[in-house]
Specification:
Elements lengths: L2 H6 L22 H27 L5 H31 L4 H24 L10 H46 L3 H28 L3 H30 L4 H26 L27 H18 L4 H17 L1 H4 L6 H21 L7 H40 L1 H15 L2 H28 L3 H30 L4 H32 L2 H10 L4 H26 L8 H20 L8 H26 L6 H24 L6 H6 L4 H42 L2 E3 L6 E3 L5 E3 L9 E3 L18
Antiparallel strand pairs: 1-4, 2-3
Protein name: Alpha-catulin
Subcellular location: Cytoplasm
Keywords: Coiled coil, Cytoplasm
Length: 775
């Protein structure tokens, strides 16, 4: 948030009770406030350094240096004057912060004038030098007052977000109390506009927050609001259509409660460290749940706390009474956290035994560590160090075992893909009117939901970063809240089997559940990457490639290439009768390579570095050349026709694109030799990195062009094969060795080719398949 942004914000801020502002607590929560202070800090640092150099050398500085220092001081004063004018404008428009803002602006103006005056004295020839501490105190006062102004302006923006939330809360109350469908539609339309306004304001705030934990909480809350809005619409429509249905009412009320909890979380995040906020302003969380899930203890957090304590014991080489009690308490907390793993019915027996064995070993090592003090100090210190080392090793082994258990259970769920089967069956039965089928699959859904929630809880226990800790915790909460609501929606449909609105409500709840399970799948992948140490490496490898603008352009080209891979896969699927067809196999192999290159543009997938990308592009070009030879062999069997002409036209473009791609990947700036040449000097390194970024962009663009031609080529081959009844036989082409050792294909007769005409069976080309790809 910039100060100018605060001025541009809406002016209608409702006055409220004044809030005390502690000038000693100037903690900055947003990046924009930090960035606004950077130029001022730089200028003040220049002045202080100049003064220090002036005093230490004892020599008269050049006139040019003196004029430059004087110019910096005047610039600071002028900038502060403009800054203060904006701050006073904000104070005039917001009565609730007016006294504090005026006070902070007055202090900033005085400090800016003091800086300019002290800087002017540096060039005075009176001979008496000003103490550097005076300038430092003035600089500190200036920074403190400017930071206060920025934080007060930031408070205004926070109030605007809270006001947007209050409007939504008021609309929710009106929606909750309306019994007329026409009135409901009118209120819901206004509600939609208010949601868009909150989405924009909260999105800006989310990207501006410094805390990774708060950013993740904001993202979770905003995503929940977006999904719950659709559930709110259908559940309300269902209740209005069936006002006597208790299950419909409970379902609708549950959606309202979840929306208020999401509003509560946004309000908590935006006010953190800025202003007080009532934790039950919009909704009261249940007694067993805390609003700030980042403070919730997990198995990994318990292990981390215990290892930090052990590190302190290692440094002090002593275990006092207080330390002993804290260590025992931390180990007891860890044992309690692991019960979610050992008590789970889905944990295999050998894994459960392994976890219990590790815990027993931890207790044994802890007993050795906290035993009474020995009078032999050297031996006691050595024993403590050995016990700490052994206990740390056992804790790491335990953490690894917990990760294995959680990821195996998650993999089992994803491999079974049971949620898709159950949800699709529920929707299919509801559409066909099979209420018995709906009830049957709702029972299965209840069991499946409990299983997914349990596995998500295990993911929460092994999360290693703040973002994953928050995301997995809220994912479990969302699933736990959504499962009973989905069952209520299904029960309403069973009571009213002919209701179209009830059927639509069930389908929307099923779709929302599928989205939540997809979120869990993505979090499991990120958790596994973090646990294996791949997360930082992947991010570093990708973010070190392009500048932001280049990255966006590259991602766009990669997305287009991904769509082409889906198109090629769709065309290859038409050749189901020719599963061993070389064209099909090569097309699928090239599609897989292109998809890996697309994942690289997103910082994901098996390609980690530019060297991997260029190697993959080289293999891609080789496969395209092989495809060209295979299709050229196939074209000999196609009779002269418009189809053969189209096939030949497309075919002749393949070598051109292959050659261009091979030239790009064999450029001197590509590969390991280029990497070694780039470390000679910094300037060479800069230009080499720039060239490599351009090279990556060109390689991906050319791969996309080649993939486009491959898609057309596969389609043309299929058209010819179906129209002229050309069938693949599956044998290898006979070859003859040339004098230089190379080979060329030899066809002595029609029967020796990979392809043959099928005179008896007439096949018609199936209609084109339209693929809708969602990225």
């Amino acid at each position: 948030m910039s100060l100018r942004g605060a001025v541009d914000a809406p002016q209608a801020v409702a006055p409220s009770a004044p809030l005390s502002f502690d000038p000693r607590n100037l903690e900055i929560k947003t990046r924009s406030v930090e960035q606004t202070l950077v130029p001022l800090v730089s200028q003040i640092t220049t002045l202080v350094n100049f003064k220090e150099g002036y005093l230490s050398s004892g020599k008269r500085r050049s006139d040019r240096a003196l004029r430059a220092a004087l110019k910096v001081g005047s610039a600071v004063e002028a900038a502060i004057e403009r800054f203060v004018a904006v701050g006073e404008t904000i104070a005039d428009e917001n009565a609730d912060i007016q006294p504090e803002m005026y006070d902070a602006c007055h202090e900033a103006r005085l400090a800016g004038a003091s800086i300019a005056n002290l800087n002017g004295c540096l060039v005075d020839e009176s001979g008496s030098a000003i103490d550097k501490a005076v300038l430092v105190r003035a600089a500190r006062q200036l920074l403190s007052s400017v930071t206060r102004v920025l934080l007060l302006a930031d408070r205004v923006l926070v109030r605007h977000i809270l006001r947007a939330e209050d409007k939504i809360a008021y609309s929710l109350t009106k929606l909750e109390n309306t019994t007329n469908f026409t009135e409901f539609v009118k209120i819901f339309t206004e509600f939609g506009g208010e949601m868009v306004d909150l989405a924009h304001r909260s999105g800006d705030r989310q990207s501006d927050l410094k805390s990774e934990k708060r950013r993740t909480q904001m993202a979770v809350a905003r995503t929940s609001l977006e999904r719950l809005t659709m559930l709110l619409l259908t559940s309300n429509k269902t209740l209005l259509r069936h006002p006597d249905s208790e299950s419909a009412r409970q379902c609708r009320d549950g959606v309202f409660h979840q929306m208020r909890l999401a509003l509560q979380l946004i309000g908590f995040c935006v006010t953190d460290g800025v202003m007080p906020f009532d934790a039950s302003h919009y909704a009261s969380p249940s007694n067993e749940e805390i609003l700030d899930i980042g403070m919730q203890l997990t198995a990994n957090a318990a292990i981390k706390q215990l290892m930090e304590m052990l590190e302190m014991v290692r440094m002090t080489c002593s275990v006092g009474t207080g330390v002993r009690e804290r260590l025992i308490s931390a180990l007891d907390s860890l044992c309690e956290m692991t019960q979610d793993f050992t008590d789970s019915a889905y944990t295999p027996h050998h894994h459960r035994e392994q976890i219990l064995d590790f815990l027993e070993e931890c207790r044994f090592e802890m007993t050795n560590l906290i035993q009474p003090e020995d009078h032999d100090e050297p031996l006691r210190s050595e024993g403590i160090e050995v016990s700490v080392e052994r206990l740390s090793r056992r804790l790491k082994d335990l953490r690894k075992q917990l990760q294995i258990v959680a990821m195996e259970q998650m993999s089992e769920i994803l491999r079974a893909n049971e949620d898709q089967l159950i949800l699709s069956s529920i929707k299919a039965c509801s559409v066909s009117g099979d209420i018995d089928g709906v009830e049957k699959y709702l029972d299965k859904f209840r069991e499946h939901g409990e299983h997914v929630q349990e596995v998500c809880r295990l993911l929460h226990h092994i999360s290693l970063t703040d973002a994953l800790h928050v995301a997995t915790g809220h994912a479990e909460r969302n699933l736990r809240a959504l499962a009973p609501l989905t069952l209520l929606a299904g029960r309403t449909l069973c009571v009213h089997p002919s209701s179209r609105i009830a059927r639509e409500n069930v389908e929307v709840f099923c779709d929302t559940w599928a989205q939540c399970v997809n979120d869990v799948s993505r979090l499991a992948k990120e958790t596994d990457a973090a646990a294996s140490g791949r997360l930082a490496a992947e991010k570093h490898a990708y973010m070190s490639l392009p500048r932001p603008g280049d990255q966006q352009k590259m991602a766009k080209v990669g997305l287009e290439m991904k769509l082409l891979t889906s198109e090629v896969d769709a065309e290859a699927e038409k050749w189901d009768e020719y599963a061993e067809n070389d064209i099909v196999k090569r097309a699928k192999a090239m599609s897989s390579m292109a998809y890996n290159m697309y994942l690289f543009t997103r910082g994901d997938g098996p390609l980690k570095t530019t060297h991997d990308l260029f190697t993959q592009a080289e293999f891609f070009a080789e496969q395209a050349n092989k495809m060209y030879k295979t299709v050229r062999e196939f074209s000999y069997e196609v009779p002269g026709s418009a189809e053969k002409s189209d096939l030949s036209t497309i075919l002749e473009k393949i070598p051109i694109h292959c050659q261009q791609l091979q030239v790009l990947v064999k450029s001197p700036t590509v590969g390991k030799p280029a990497t070694f040449s780039k470390v000679v000097i910094t300037l060479t390194n800069y230009y080499s990195n720039l060239l490599e970024t351009l090279q990556v962009d060109s390689v991906i663009q050319e791969t996309k062009n080649l993939m486009n031609e491959i898609a057309k080529l596969v389609t043309a081959c299929f058209v010819c094969a179906t129209k002229y009844e050309i069938e693949f036989r599956g044998s290898s082409v006979s070859r003859q060795v040339l004098a230089d050792g190379s080979e060329y294909a030899q066809r002595s007769s029609r029967e020796s080719t990979l392809w043959r005409r099928t005179p008896s069976i007439r096949r018609t080309a199936p209609p084109p398949v339209t693929q809708h790809n969602e990225i």
